[in-house]
Amino acid sequence: MLRQLDHPQDDTTTTATRIQAWDDDPASAVYVAEADGDLLGLVAVHICPFFERAGSWGRIVALVVSDQARGQGVGTALVAVAETFATSHGCVRMEVTSADRRQAAHEFYRHRGYPDQAGKSSRFLRDLNDPT
Fold first, then answer.
1. Phi and psi of 92, rounded to 5°?
2. For a tag site, which of 30, 73, 90, 104 has the least CB within 10 Å?
3. Cα three-residue angle 69-110-30, rounded to 5 degrees
4. CA atoms within 13 Å, Cβ hemisphere of 38
């Protein structure tokens, strides 16, 4: 499913090891939606304490719904379970990022009460194995 978000996966063993690490971390969770043995979608959520104030925030690290299940409420249900996990861990805010090219996803998040932060906040990334 993560390939649909342009996240190529390593071999099955490496991917399974990563998923197990998430399962072992009490601040992280992965939920799946399935029907009749078919995987319809998944959401990964992580909890992080605020540094600058009391409380924590949740971050949807990945959300993907299979092409054939889109528009059927799967994404909404997965976001709801991620929010429930975050709330149960004391979170007062949720965050999600989405690639600029994913306009339909942006509308999905806005429709669920996640205002766009473009122009208010910037994101900067650096690969730590890059010597630059």
1. -115, 0
2. 104
3. 50
4. 9
Query: How far apart, in whole angstroms, are the C-alpha atoms of residue 32 and residue 42?
Result: 4
pLDDT at 111: 93
- Determine contact, residues 81/117, Cβ cutoff 8 Å: no
The beta strand positions in 9-105, using DSSP E, are: 28-35, 38-49, 56-65, 91-96
Q: Other C-beta atoms within 10 Å of 71: how many?
A: 9
pLDDT digit string (tens) for the chain, length 132 residues:
565 655 555 677 877 888 888 889 999 999 999 999 888 999 999 999 999 999 999 999 999 998 888 888 999 999 999 999 999 999 999 999 888 888 888 898 899 999 888 888 887 877 888 776
Alpha-carbon distance of 110 to 25, in angstroms, equals 29
For residues 91 and 60, give the distance between their C-alpha atoms in angstroms, rounded to a whole number. 12
